[in-house]
Hints:
alpha+beta; Elongation Factor Tu (Ef-tu), domain 3; CATH 2.40.50.100; Substrate Binding Domain Of Dnak, Chain:A, Domain 2; 6-stranded antiparallel barrel; 4-stranded antiparallel sheet; 6 helices
Amino acid sequence: MKLPHLSKKHLLLVAVAVVVAGLAWFGWSKYADRGPGDGFVSGNGRIEATEIDVATKSAGRLREVLVKEGEFVHAGQPLAQMDTATLKAQREEAVANLDQAKAAIRTAEFTVAQRRNEYESAQAQVAAQVAERDAARKQFVRTQILADKGLVSQQTLDDARASIDSKQATIASAKAKVAAAQAAVETAVSQVTSSRSSVDAATATIARIDADIADSTLVSPRDGRVQVRVAQPGEVLAAGGRVLNLLDLSDVYMTFFVPETAAGRIALGSDARIVLDAAPGTVIPATVSFVASQAQFTPKTVETASERQKLMFRVRAQIPPDLLKRYIEQVKTGMPGVAWLKLDANAQWPASLQVSPALQKVAKD
């Protein structure tokens, strides 16, 4: 193959281009920014926050949603309202049962008083019959003395003995009435106890329904931002049905991965720095809040410094809550960036990873 003929001018241009390329490569290799140095490690990740599902406790119809997607909410703020018509009807029924149980207590207590009067009356009857029997015995003794002297007939003596037997039978009957009256008292007392138990049960039912009515107003468990509105008014939801999804913007972090050779040198509470792609000039202070105790395969969606590194450890860099609170309007999840960690405690953060005094002050406060 015959090479094309190049003029001296073309050869000169090619030579100049080669020299310039060589100088450029040399300069880049010598002066290019290679990061903070060997005492640091970094990993790519995205800003994440704790997600909270606001869901119904009981099955029912969603009546109203009080907030919009993207809206900031505070802990305890009402977010949605379930329909409570059925619960209110159940409460009215429970209140009626409570009133009925209270009336039953009054009736049972009146019955107890009545049965106790009957019991006391029966006891008085027994005492009266015992007294009459004792008098009949004394009369029999006197009649027997007179009969022995022949002053009264045998019939009179037999009548005195019969009177004793009659009084004895009457006493037995009166004692039976006392036992029956005592049983009636105990029955009436048990009715009072049962009625009081019905009052307690009705009271507990009302308290449970009141709790269900209170739970029908779905409130925010903490400060955050509404991320997704899952259900719409009028939908019938099962127990545990999701209505809203919130982001807790006081718990924001970046999850990233580091090589196994660096994981053992990272301690919880260590300082970290986060630089977002959207704001490369702003360095965000953070703290290591989690280091995985077990290595895992490198996720496909995470870029690593060395593709030869097959096992990585998951690390979480937590952004200070005070800083988040100050700039809560600017906090957005899903933003990609880079997290930097110090492997050498004596290493100093380079100027490119220094936190601005303003951010540092807010983070410390």
